[in-house]
Each structure stands twice: as structure tokens, then as C-alpha cells.
Amino acid sequence: MDKDMVEDIKSESNMPLYYKVQNYILDLIKNNTLKEGDLIPTEMELSIMFHISRPTVRQGLNTLVSKGYLKRIKGKGTFVTKPKILQENTRFIESYNREMNKKGLIPETKVLEISIKICPDILVDKLGVEEGDKIIQLRRLRYAYGEEEQDNKPILLTTVYIPYKKFPNLIMYDFEKRSLYEVFEENNVYIKKALREIEAKLSNKETSKLLEINEGSPIHFISSYGYGEDGSIIEYSESIYPGERNKFIVEITR
Amino acid sequence: MDKDMVEDIKSESNMPLYYKVQNYILDLIKNNTLKEGDLIPTEMELSIMFHISRPTVRQGLNTLVSKGYLKRIKGKGTFVTKPKILQENTRFIESYNREMNKKGLIPETKVLEISIKICPDILVDKLGVEEGDKIIQLRRLRYAYGEEEQDNKPILLTTVYIPYKKFPNLIMYDFEKRSLYEVFEENNVYIKKALREIEAKLSNKETSKLLEINEGSPIHFISSYGYGEDGSIIEYSESIYPGERNKFIVEITR
Q1: Which residues are within 8 A (CB) of A239 and not within 5 positions of it... i.e. 6 or more apart?
Q2: With a threshold of 0.80, does the pTM exceed it?
Q3: Rounded to an integer, what distance in angstroms lies between the CA atom of residue A146 and that of residue A89?
Q4: Chain B partners within 8 Å of A235 (Cβ)
């Protein structure tokens, strides 16, 4: 539930009782009075405060738990957590920047490496190039900020590989400012189809440091193939998304 | 590459040199001479054995690494691993049994619990039921065997919740023998749309024991909503897939 909706509900006099608790806590989170890791008041305290029953308090908190704003820890209490970002690149082909903008988040990118090199053996088949061909390698850390947000931990670490002969001028762009897909499109290249494989792994030492997570944290490891209009591979990438900051969604119909 | 393809390639006299190594190792894995965790011969040894260069040996092994049959560990060598099952329920709505059959695997199911209970608070919204309504809860461990396979570790642990009034007779079925979707369809209920959310987490004590994985292993945690033809929720489920045995794929077009 976003802030506007909360305001709307508040203004209604016949708002269900559990909404009151829910909105009260959500407001404290949104205005940073309650921060990640903070303990919220007990059900008993909230029950007294709002003159409502404990089951009703619990109902209000349940919604915030299922939305990822709160987390109950047995025997310890209920804590403020940060909701995971719902990544939708498992549903749509879209640049990271555009996807974050749509969510009302401000994207930011740090380029760790951009280079031209001989294609490593292991990537020859994946990129559909010949042995000895050159490729471009672009490694980036990506962030996303809420408007009032202070903390700035990375959302993902991604390394993309592109056949050099498809984009000999790619190295000239500033990928802290420009999105790769935007640059592709300026060059009349469109990713028409993407295949992505999702694995669950533990973060290693190097990526943990870069992503500011504990070593051995759960991560989504996503290998992605992007195909152009002629069916050839335009890009192959490997991305690491900390499990604590991301979740993915798919929608399937038949 | 499956066995038939290997046989075909073998019979061709003009098969590329690196195929020889690849097929040799793959045959040893398929006929169980090389088992999960075994060290394979070094590149040098294979190079001498086949009278081919080390880069060619490496090329042959690379394919098996990228297909998940082998894993290189720095300073230790190359080991046999078991390829992850490519789960496609992120692309299609299909029963587990049918999906495994399509892959040439034999599915098996162990029912841990089937019960009728009052809907827990936290599931009321998810299932679109009223507070105090009954639900059916079905918890299953699911397996998949290759033809010549000895090991029988679970592929996933899944708990599905279904509004009781939609299926008052569901409790009568034997879900070790029957697939839930099959039973739905016999009752003229069809899942038309599914939404699935994928999270990466660490396995806890209880699920690790059930899934026969180490505690703290990476898992895919998948929450799934199945909608019927009228748009109402037919089932909500939470499934845990060990990261070491599963990967998921999505295909997106625009």
C-alpha cells in the first residue's frame, strides 16, 4: 500500500479498525521514525493505545508482515524490515533504469569494469562467436533509492558480455549515465527475446564485499541470453541479486 | 546432450576431436562408473590418452561444465556433479508429474500431511476467504528419478492451501498417486493463470532434514497463486526447491 492510499483511507471515518494500527505503523516507517531493525510496540501496547482487541491489532500487523514491512521473530517480537524489490525482468524485457523508474525508485549505476578482450573458452558457445573473437565485458553495480532513503546498498551486480564485432563502438559510452538497452536501441538493435535461468546460490567473498551482504548469504544467480530480431545472441549476462533485497515474479497463463 | 545423441556422434568418423573426450566422460557418468563427487582424470592424462592437445581436451570438458555435469574447483581438479533439474513452472502451468514425465524423469510423491483446518490469519487475504473459513492443507515431498538412478533425494517440498468450500471432497484423494491438477480438472476446475514469486533464502533445520540438504543451503522459496476461470483463487502454495538440485527458466518476448 503506498502513502497516498494510506492518506485516503485515513480520511474515511468508517475505516476498519485494523487499518488504524496498520497505517500508524506504516506512517512511522515511511517517515523514518521506525527504521530497519527497530522493534515495534507489542500487540498488547497497540491494543491499549487504539482501544481495540488484540486479534484486530494482529490482523493489522499481518498485512504489513506479508507485504514485507515487518518480520516476526519468535520470542523476540516484531521488527521493521525493508520490503524486497519486486524484480520484473522475469516478465518483461526492459532496461533496469526504466524498470526502477516505473516503481518510483531512482536508479544508479557504478561501472566496475568495461573492457575488450578475447572471448574466454567457456563463453564461446554462449555468445555464438568463434574461438579467438573479441568480446566486450561490462561489469556494473546497480542501486535503487526511494525518495527519502538514506541507505544505499547495491541491488545487484551484473556482468554482461557482448560480441565485439556487433558493437565496436560500445566502449565509448558512459554506462554510469546511459542504459545499455538505450544504447542498443540508438544503434537500431532491439532485444526481441530473452531467456533467463535462475539459480539459488550462496554469495562468495568477493561478491559479498561488493554487494555489502554477509558472506554465505542467499543470492539469485541469473544467467540471461538476449536475442536480436534475426535470432542471434546480442548479449549474455550473469547477475547476482542478494536474496534479502530482491524477489522475482512470473505470470503464466494458459 | 542425451545418450542417443552421443551414440549418433560416436558413429560418425569425422567427429570433432573434443567430442571424443566429452563423450568418453559423459559415458562414464551415464553408466555410473563416475559418480557425483568423483574426480575425473586431469587434462594432461586425457590429452595423452586421446593423443589430442590440452586446449582440445579443455574444450570438450567446458561443454560438460556448462551443462552441469562437471565442476572445476581451483587447485583441486574437475569433479562430477549432478545437473540441476530445469524447472519450467515459471513458463508453463502444468502438473509436476507431467512436467517430469516430459523430461524423461519418473516423478514420485510422499504426502506428509493432508488436513482440513480453520484458515490461519496470515492466509485469509491470500486465499480470498473469510476469517474462520476452512481450508485444505496438503504438504508433499516430491522426487524425480532418472532411469538408471540410485539416489533418491527430494526435488522439492510443497505446501498447498485450498479453500475448503471449493473442494469439500479433496481430502478423499490419494495424492501420492494422483496429481492435484488432474483432480482439479476431473472436477472441472482449471487453473487459467498463475502468479509466482521467487525468493532466495537459506534452508532451516526442519526443511533441511526433509529435503536432505545441509542446513543453511541456498533454496528457492516460491509462493504461487493459482486462479480459476472466474479469476478467483483456487490454490495458494509455498514451495522450497534446493538450489543445488533445481534451476528455473523464463522466456520473455516483446
Answers
A1: A156, A157, A158, A159, A220, A221, A222, A224
A2: yes
A3: 19
A4: none
* Res. A2: pLDDT tops 50: no
**Out of B59, B93, B251, closest to residue A195 by CB:** B251
To the nearest whole Å, the CA of B194 is away from the closest chain A CA by: 5
Banded model confidence at residue A121, pLDDT cuts 50, 70, 90: confident
Domains (ranges, CATH) in chain B? 3-80 (1.10.10.10), 85-248 (3.40.1410.10)
- Quote the ipTM score: 0.85
- Report CB contact under 8 Å: B125, A63: yes
The Cβ of residue A89 has, within 10 Å, a number of other Cβ atoms equal to 20
Q: Is B170:B136 a contact under the CB 8 Å cutoff?
A: yes
- C-alpha cell read off for A219: 543470492
For residue A125, the distance in angstroms to the closest alpha carbon of chain B comes to 9
Residues of chain A positioned with their CB less than 8 A from the CB of B68: none
